[in-house]
Amino acid sequence: MSKASEIVAIATAEIGYKEKATNSNLDSATANPGSANWTKYARDLAVAGYYNGGKNGYAWCDVFVDWVFFKAYGKDNGQRIQCQTGPYGAGCTFSMQYYQEKGRFDKNPKVGDQIFFRYSGSSGADHTGIVAEVTSAQIITIEGNSDNQVKKNTYARTYGCIIGYGHPLYDEADGTAAPAPTPATEKKKTEATEKAVSVSLKQLSQGSTGAQVKTIQRIIYVRGINSQISIDGDFGPITKAGVIALQKKLFPNTASEWDGIVGKNTWTAALTALN
After folding, report:
1. Rounded to an integer, what distance in angstroms lies between the CA atom of residue 202 and that of residue 208?
2. pLDDT of 218-240, one tens digit each?
3. pTM of the predicted structure, to 2 decimals
């Protein structure tokens, strides 16, 4: 019997696992941390014969979700439950399409679902995770490749970057319905979701590294500026060229902004364009 609670439990146990700088200490949750997209998840799935090749060194949010189902149910049954009928499950867009082809994709979240996000105007998905909890106001997720680690995140149900939810073929509902909130609880949750949050964005230039470099690399990728760019958190010459190309799109009449440096103006314009 496959259950949503089993998936959430396995994913929860992985919270805090950090991606690795090299192909070393892959089984340690915290050793050898880095931003090179090396994980035990891609290694284990490669050994099991997933996908059309090894995926270590690539963005791994979808790989993490697949690994959780693999650990729970094995390769064949795990892929069946995820509605996967081809070798391209490591890509968010392909995974979303598998659910859509089975008629199991909509805007109604349930615990154990696979959530998909889009941060651009493209038709595909840019990020994914597992729904761990659903309330009338919020979605709580567990996501791989979130700030270079497995992380629990909370979103308002109205968050505009959520595309929808893929519903795995669980054998039973397993308590996925959200409990009805009391008026007092509802008020607190609504107030919590309406609070403004601030994020500190660093100025990035050639030589910068880290999660925010990955963010600008993803923006370059999903806008179709450079589909070959590596989302590795390393701001090298290719990323700089991509930033300049992005700046030319964002500031077509202001050549002074085409400097390859991601400062306040570029961050603001890039993130505003995603909305």
Report:
1. 10
2. 888 877 788 678 888 899 999 99
3. 0.65
